[in-house]
Amino acid sequence: MRDTSDNTADPSGPPGPAEPATEPAAEPVSESANGGIQLINVTKRFPGQETPAVDDITLTVPAGEIVVLLGPSGSGKTTTMRLINRLIEPTSGKIIVAGKDAMSLDPTELRRQIGYVIQNAGLFPHMTVGTNVGLVPQMLGWDKQKIADRVDELLRLVALDPAVYRDRYPRELSGGQQQRVGVARALAADPPAMLMDEPFGALDPITRERLQDELLQLQEELGKTIVFVTHDVDEALKLGDRIAILREGSQIAQYGTPQEILLNPAGEYVEQFLGGGQAMKLLKFGRVADVPLYQVPEATPDEDADTVRARIGAWEDGDFGIVLDERHRPLRWITQEDLEGASGPIGDRGEATAAPIRGRLTLQQALEALIQIEQDWVPVVGARGVYRGTVTLGTLQNAIKEMKERTRTRRKDPRQEQEAAGT
Ligand SMILES: Nc1ncnc2c1ncn2[C@@H]1O[C@H](COP(=O)(O)OP(=O)(O)OP(=O)(O)O)[C@@H](O)[C@H]1O
């Protein structure tokens, strides 16, 4: 049963009627000014309920990131989402969306800035796919041609051929296709933020994985601020830039990157939630960008062999370095042996590096890359191919070893565990 104070009948549907603004506009808040979302001491107590559904949650969702709310059934995840787009009103506390106090915004305007996707897509069954997707643009008064173009663009974006699917009804689609249409509809007015409440919960595992991959791909292009609810740990680890693990009352047991949570779970509750096998999970979901990369001596082709030889010689961990081009992109590995007898610029001495990997890859993908190439090192690059550091088998092993050691220390010293959990 839902709060009777809800101000729309269908949460996934078009925005509800406008309500008068209740407060003057808030001062912009830096973390959320760019489309981020902040909850500050937010509580929601439903009439007649002894304990609040949401009890004093404070959470920052940085702009352009996917934050996953992960918690057991009844922990208040959906209520938290519905508070953000004002389908229900908080009992106390403040919600800031894109730098503005949500309470100061017209709810219709607010919801236009926040797409909403729910389980089973929540499509209107008597409307075609095209009409469902075009609902918000239609409400915004766009002309027919513009709406039609936008609908086709969105359907292509979610991998549905407009010519095939535009005129179908939701019942003529598979569950996965309906969910894609739900995502397309939420993106229709190009909102900076999206709330996704167990959008893939009702799908079979294969379709679910495929839609998760598509969402990540879409996010690379669109960079939306996304709050994503699930109770599936693997889904959270795969999709979340950050994860908030919730207890009852939306209380945060831990908030961190997947890596941080796997490396250092804040107490028994979180460990139980992760369900063991953390070393495997770390490999499967940990991202290369989040482990300490190996920093080797760097050189450029125009540098003198003597200088490079001395630099590598002064480095205690090995006898090689990496040669980077003028834009700091990896070119070659260079060893002391390559430099033997050399003088003047090092030019193209050394051996070309394997194709660099991106920081977004998982540790497992990095491991696969290392096994495939016949080199012990693989360079990691960030935006525009700029070199960030090197991954070796040792880097991966250390990350896992460190995780095991921390878990062991915590088990030996329960006080440390309590501190980590903030209790
Ligand atoms: N409209 C409502 N009126 C009264 N109680 C409510 C209402 N909506 C939710 N609750 C209660 O608030 C608590 C949190 O519910 P909520 O739906 O937010 O949990 P959830 O974490 O999303 O659960 P699930 O994973 O099962 O969807 C529950 O105890 C629920 O019974």
From TrEMBL:
Residues 414-423 have a biased composition (Basic and acidic residues). Keywords: ATP-binding, Nucleotide-binding, Repeat, Transport. Residues 19-32 have a biased composition (Low complexity). GO terms for molecular function: ATP binding. The keyword Nucleotide-binding applies. Residues 1-10 have a biased composition (Polar residues). Pfam families: ABC_tran. Residues 1-32, 402-423 are annotated as: Disordered. Residues 37-274 form the ABC transporter domain. Belongs to the ABC transporter superfamily. This is ABC transporter ATP-binding protein.
